[in-house]
Amino acid sequence: MSRLGLLALQLLVAVVALALWQFLATVAVLGEVWLPPFFFSNPVDVGTQVVAWFASGVIWKHLLITLWESILAFVIGSAMGAAVGFWFARQPRVAAVFDPYVKMVNALPRVVLAPIFTLWLGLGIWSKVALGVTLVFFIVFFNVYQGVKEVSTTVRDNARMLGMSERQLTRHVYFPSALSWMFSSLHTSVGFAVVGAVVGEYLGSAAGLGYLIQQAEGVFDVAGVFAGMFVLSAFVILIDVGVTLVERRLLVWRPVAGEGRG
Fold first, then answer.
1. SS3 state of residue 197
2. When comparing pLDDT for 262 and 201, which is higher?
3. pLDDT digits (tens, 9 = 90+) for 206-260
4. Is the pLDDT confidence value at 102 over 80?
5. CA distance 160 to 144
6. C-alpha 132, offset from chain centre
7. Closest CA to 69 of 202, 182, 179, 247
8. Average pLDDT taken over every residue of the chain
């Protein structure tokens, strides 16, 4: 399927879903409206709210704050996860010692940590960044760890036979393997970085998309809540596109799926 055809189908799914939502929220079926507007709003009202936010410019301040928090959480969490995951994979004894503690910390519900970070770091951006880092770190950590462990023993042994030092092995064998796994995790990490920022804003802040959603929810403005969710979704997609572009640039050596098949 061509890229244009795929995009057309994706847009068709969105149009059908929105049309069905609008129909069920505004037209009585069998004597009743299946999606009461008070609880579900409708796409027209949600779209009007989004347009009003952008037309007045009120949304930009909140977008920039959430963007900055998400980028910091994404970069710091990814860097830490990649570094620690690589180190643990190359040092099995260290990994064995810390294994139960890593699993224990990973099992902690992140929402419980949000008030603690707020207490430690205040209501500024860093409490939101810290929450996002805890979400991103483990996703990247486990993927990089597995990526290094999955290096082909044949490739590794052949490289050593050719006289590669440990530094050259790290650069030319382990790092490319870890990079593929890391980028597969980064697409998921983007969403979690934003989730961490927004949840932190929702629980306590004076700005950001989470703050907008919390304010709308507080006055039973369902259209405002859905508008914030749609802006947030578009926001995540744009960041993910950026990650994809970087991935294609750094993994240009990787063969395309299906390449070479007759």
1. helix
2. 201
3. 888 889 888 898 888 999 999 999 988 888 888 888 877 877 776 655 555 444 4
4. yes
5. 22
6. 9
7. 202
8. 84
Residue type at 252?
V
pTM: 0.80
Output helix, strand, coil percentages for the chain, rounded to the nearest 5.
80, 0, 20
Six-digit token string for 85: 């995951």
What's the chain's length in residues? 262
Residue appearing with tokens 């999955």: 150
Query: By three-state DSSP, how is residue 32 classified?
Result: strand
- Which token pair is 23? 């129909």
Higher pLDDT pick, 175 / 134: 134
Residue identified by tokens 């409490």 is 127
CA distance 87 to 100: 16
Which architecture does CATH list for 41-250?
Orthogonal Bundle (1.10)
**Could you give the CA distance from residue 2 to residue 4 in angstroms, rounded to a whole number?**
5
Q: Is residue 81 helix, strand or coil?
A: helix
The domains of the chain are located at: 1-40, 41-250
